[in-house]
Specification:
alpha/beta, four-stranded parallel beta sheet, binds pyridoxal-5'-phosphate, single chain, binds zinc ion
């Protein structure tokens, strides 16, 4: 096995540093919400392994083109499933309709299980196998569960997935097809999360729950690397992404920061996190300047971002603050309109949570904060076939 490229894991709140094998999930002093961990690399070693010039010659059509920047020790455990290096469309009709000539759509609906979550699961399965766990557990509104179930099936590792009963049919079908043990929760995603935490600890399963597993954000950072490379290292002004637990936006920010540390980019985009009006605890916390998010009763048609207590709240708020961005809320109606707009004028059919990013672009445009000169990326995080109810 090669030496690890990771220097240490660092608590986002107390900044304590931990050796990689000292700790699995979160800082014991700060707990599972405040004590999430950043993966900090040995940059001296990484600089010897990869450069922008190397990438220009690299034909790998997946996010594994950034392998030196990912927490993989044993490449043998990488599954041969399609993930990442997703298209960055500059779509003439969409851009004309929105009067935004410099809008780019980062379309992650073509990953193996049709959502952004495959970026994280592809890394999580490697860690589970490296650490010799016999089973993986995950709580999910649907996409993360379907995603890790596919990677677990591919690796021949059993998994147990905790999902709310209200999970959309196609996501449940994916779980069944991949042969996951399914725990249907009569309650919310937040309750599924807590139950999964207990079962993973009790049974010594590898925990793929978002935020508390430090390696997920590493997988999720790869879209930031791709966006910069696809734009020839010319960083966009604004990146829009929908936010539930806040792990995707945290991961994107980590990606931009890693590139900046490497000296491959010279500035940062502002990150704009988009929540649904009926599920916007992070928007409220951001507006009120809270350090800790209050748990909310939540409801939205965008099931993937229906999260009352965001688990990656510390990193998500940090990403928005450090980038000089903001968090905004959009209505369910605006989300459905965005689904129809993107499909009808662009041929790109996305699920509600993904469409929220486009609804967010429109919202900021109406506020005058997005102008025709703005160079914008909207991250489309999941396929429309994941939940067809909103458009039937
Ligand atoms: C399609 C889609 N978009 C956005 C999100 C939000 O990601 P996060 O919970 O990391 O904020 C999710 C999470 O489940 C998702 O599945
Ligand atoms: Zn700590």
């Amino acid at each position: 096995m090669k030496p690890t490229k990771i220097d240490y894991l660092q608590c986002v709140t107390c900044k304590k540093q931990f050796a990689v094998n000292e700790i699995e999930y979160t800082c014991p002093n700060c707990g599972p919400v405040q004590g999430t961990l950043d993966v900090i690399y040995n940059w001296k070693q990484i600089r010897k392994m990869i450069s922008r010039e190397d990438l220009a010659k690299n034909n790998e059509p997946s996010h594994w083109r950034y392998l030196p920047l990912l927490p993989v020790n044993n490449e043998r455990f990488i599954q041969p499933l399609r993930v990442g290096w997703s298209p960055l469309y500059r779509h003439p009709r969409v851009n004309k309709a929105l009067q935004l000539p410099h809008l780019y759509l980062k379309d992650d609906s073509g990953n193996i299980t049709a959502s952004y979550k495959d970026r994280a699961s592809s890394v999580a399965i490697v860690k589970a196998l490296e650490k010799k766990y016999a089973r993986i557990g995950a709580a999910s509104s649907g996409n993360a569960g379907a995603s890790i179930a596919a990677f677990a099936a591919s690796a021949g590792l059993p998994c147990t997935i905790f999902v709310p009963e209200s999970i959309p049919g196609p996501k449940l079908a994916q779980l069944k097809a991949y042969g996951a043990q399914i725990m249907l929760v009569k309650g919310s995603y937040d309750e599924a999360f807590d139950w999964c935490m207990q079962e993973c600890e009790k049974n010594h399963w590898y925990n793929r729950n978002t935020a508390i597993n430090p390696y997920l954000a590493e997988g999720k950072k790869t879209a930031a690397l791709e966006i910069c490379e696809q734009l020839k290292w010319d960083v966009p002004d604004l990146v829009f992404v929908s936010v539930g637990d806040g792990c995707i936006i945290s991961g994107l920010w980590k990606g931009f920061k890693d590139l900046y540390t490497l000296g491959w980019i010279e500035k940062f985009p502002q990150l704009i996190g988009v929540q649904a009006e009926g599920s916007a605890p992070l928007v409220r916390a951001f507006r009120e300047g809270l350090q800790e998010v209050r748990e909310d009763e939540v409801q939205t048609i965008a099931d993937s971002i229906c999260v009352g207590f965001p688990r990656d709240q510390v990193k998500a708020l940090r990403a928005v603050h450090e980038s000089g961005g903001t968090l905004i809320a959009v209505s369910d109606q605006a989300i459905v309109e965005a689904i129809k707009f993107l499909a009808g004028s662009g041929g790109i059919f996305v699920e509600p949570a993904a469409a929220a990013a486009i609804a967010g672009v429109r919202c900021m445009q109406q506020l005058g904060k997005v102008v025709p000169e703005s160079k914008i990326v909207a991250v489309l995080t999941g396929s429309g076939l994941k939940d067809i109810r909103p458009i039937l």
